[in-house]
Amino acid sequence: MFEVVNVLLLAAGALIGSEVPAPGAATATASDEVRLSCERFAARLASVSLDECLGIGLQATDGRSVAGLPIVAREYPPVEARPPRGRVLLFGGIHGDELSSVSIVFKWMGILNRFHSGLFHWRIVPALNPDGLLQRPGSRMNANGVDLNRNFPCPDWLAATRDYWERRTGKNPRRYPGPAALSEPESRWLAEQIERFQPDVIVSVHAPHSVVDFDGPPHPPRKLGSLELKLLGTYPGSLGRYAGFFQEIPVVTIELESATSMPSLREQKRIWIDLVRWLKERLPEAPSSPAQTLAAPGG
């Protein structure tokens, strides 16, 4: 499966590389891109202020959306004297109309900014689908009209995704898997992060099903805050099937109650505390090997 993914990553890079130039070409610096991203997020999200976003310490990565917007991220690396137990890749906003999934990730990064102990190595992406997020109204799909959570590789991808999309959804445009696996720059970038970072756990934040979903090796968290475990199953092209089943990486999907309204402050903290507690129980005491660093534009 890894060999197939590598081929797909290379093929997707050749397919889309010339179509997603960095905004501002060579004139925009990484700090300019972060400020512009924060201005856009603050204008779109009632729960995230410009100062809050700028204070997180985000950096522009080498990832770009279809429209050329940067995919920004924050790395919380190991503390020098303390090897981490494991690596955690956490992201929100793969569906752009799930605004709360982006906002709550900012709140959790704020907690890590104050209390990061180095117990885990975190790589956090608040908005994987900035094009969909910044549309008004927000769009589940990216700017190509593709559901990014149906665009990841799986065996017989074309036949499996077409069968599901055509027969099960009646060609619902909100579930369109795209023309090929990893055809989209956002899903391709996330697949590259999984390959580079080698996470021990992936946490994906969604809304509004009000449950905890889980794919991959046992054992799942039974409850995060008020959200209880309910296994929803996977779909052809979904991240859960790609990473959870085929790569055997535990994938925790946090489905918030509302896509447009934030949980209470107490609930935000409870979900976070329960997640960290589960990670402590789930990940071994043995330290993780070093991961590749987060690539910046042109890096």
Overview of this protein structure:
With 299 residues, this protein is α/β, with parallel strands linked by helices. The chain is 37% helix and 15% strand. Helix 4 links the parallel strand 3 (86-92) and strand 4. The chain is globular and about 50 Å long. The protein has one domain (2-282): Aminopeptidase (3-Layer(aba) Sandwich), CATH 3.40.630. The chain has a seven-stranded mixed beta sheet. Strands 7-8 form a two-stranded antiparallel ribbon. The protein is built from nine helices and nine strands.
Number of structurally distinct domains: 1
Order of strands across the widest beta sheet? 1-2-4-3-5-9-6
- Rg over C-alpha atoms, rounded to the nearest angstrom: 18 Å
| Strands, total number | 9
Q: CATH topology, which one?
A: Aminopeptidase
User: Whole-Å distance between the termini?
Assistant: 27 Å
CATH class: Alpha Beta
Largest sheet: 7 strands, mixed
User: Which CATH architecture would you pick?
Assistant: 3-Layer(aba) Sandwich
DSSP helix count?
9
> Regions with pLDDT < 50 over 5+ consecutive residues?
1-27
Instruction: Assign an overall shape.
Output: globular
CATH superfamily: Zn peptidases
Helix content, binned percent:
25-40%
